[in-house]
Design a protein that fits this description.
Layout lengths: L28 H18 L3 E2 L7 E6 L5 H12 L3 E6 L12 H9 L4 E6 L4 H7 L5 E6 L5 H18 L7 E5 L6 H10 L6 E5 L8 H9 L3 E4 L3 H5 L4 E4 L23 H7 L5 E3 L25 H19 L11 E2 L16
Parallel strand pairs: 2-3, 2-4, 4-5, 6-7, 6-9, 7-8, 9-10
Antiparallel strand pairs: 1-11
Bound molecules: N-carbamoyl-L-aspartate.
């Protein structure tokens, strides 16, 4: 049952004075905390106990010029659960951009069709260009190796919720970050976002050649956080409250850059048992690469309560709903059309799923 007091009216100015949400640089801590409290408020709708029609009549254009399953469907589910509808396009080959259309023209055209636009594009900076050509709110769904700001929000939101259960706060925590830190845009956005908190310590462990860009590490240090590259997965796990694992972004590694993949940095249950505090939580933006020799997050942790990856994807819907209601200035109107869901709410699939 939704029993929280409806949130205060949203400011009409979006995030950081922009109608768009293209970078975590637009966020300050009060804005992040507000998005999280709106997401908490919207959880019963994301979990299909309640419905709202606050965005009835609104249309989202979901433009994915690069591979995606969860991000596209999660944005689509979020907008639909607010009562809106979706138009979308996927892939580059089938878009007019393949005919040479500019980002600005595409952006202007879609502005006549939709009330919000989500864009994923393989080129860094392209989503910001898309936003410059429209007044319709644009949300960055990932721009090349650049940013993925809603993923960072849902990652930090998951950390906050998991910590809430464990009686911890984000300030002062230690975060191990593993995998492709160079091309993994979720890591870039998450570290910038977490830099808004106080006194964190980041332990980084990546294959040679896939180290975190110096600008991201410097940004965190400039905000008073510790950032250290460590020599083994065991060192990264020691004392870490959160382990954030990532996939090697093979599609972004330039031809000719040799990267040696090794089981040494695959996160497996035995490593967690041996080196991590008992209440550690394991996150991954997903997808994890399940192919042999990929050495991504192992499946041997499946079903283990420390593995929070599906709680993380579930949280993504509520967080993206909050991003939409805040950007469109309707958070305070959600309650006007609240109704219990007419169908029965699905029960948890596995013991480590959150109670619905
Ligand atoms: C990530 C992405 O696309 O940046 N996935 C996601 O959006 N959850 C991570 C990845 O592709 O490895």
């Amino acid at each position: 049952v939704i029993d929280a007091v409806p949130p205060a009216p949203a400011s009409a100015s979006g995030f950081g004075g922009s109608p768009h949400f293209t970078s975590v640089a637009q966020l300050d801590l009060p804005t992040v905390e507000r998005i999280f409290s709106v997401a908490d408020y919207l959880q019963p709708i994301a979990r299909r106990q309640w419905t709202t029609r606050v965005l009835e009549g609104a249309v989202l254009a979901n433009l994915f010029f690069e591979a995606s399953t969860r991000t596209r469907l999660s944005f689509g589910a979020a907008f639909s659960r607010l009562g809106g509808s979706i138009i979308d396009t996927t892939g580059f080959t089938f878009s007019s951009m393949a005919k040479g259309e500019s980002i600005a023209d595409t952006s202007r055209v879609i502005s006549g069709y939709a009330d919000a636009i989500v864009v994923r594009h393989p080129d860094e900076g392209s989503v910001a260009q898309f936003a410059e050509a429209t007044n319709v709110p644009v949300v960055n769904g990932g721009d090349g190796a650049g940013e993925h700001p809603t993923q960072a929000l849902l990652d930090a939101y998951t950390i906050q919720r998991e910590f809430g259960r464990l009686g911890k706060g984000i300030d002062g925590s230690r975060i191990a970050v593993l995998g492709d830190l160079r091309y993994g845009r979720t890591v870039h956005s998450l570290l910038r976002l977490l830099s808004l908190y106080r006194g964190l310590s980041f332990a980084l462990f990546s294959p040679a050649g896939l180290e975190l860009p110096a600008s991201v590490a410097e940004h965190a240090r400039a905000h008073g956080h510790r950032v250290e590259s460590v020599a083994s997965i065991a060192d990264a796990l020691a004392g870490a409250d959160v382990v954030y694992t990532t996939r090697i972004q093979k599609e972004r590694i330039p031809e000719g850059q040799a990267v040696e993949l090794s089981p040494d940095w695959q996160l497996r249950r035995e490593l967690l048992d041996a080196h991590s505090p008992a209440d550690v939580i394991v996150l991954h933006p997903l997808p994890r690469d399940a192919r042999e020799g990929a050495y991504d997050l192992s499946t041997d942790l499946d079903g283990d309560p420390r593995l929070a990856i599906f709680r993380q994807t579930d949280n993504g819907v509520a967080v993206r709903m909050a991003v939409f209601t805040e950007l469109l200035g309707v958070s305070h109107l959600v309650a006007d059309t609240l109704r219990p869901a007419a169908w029965s709410t699905p029960s948890p699939l596995r013991p480590d799923d959150p109670a619905l």
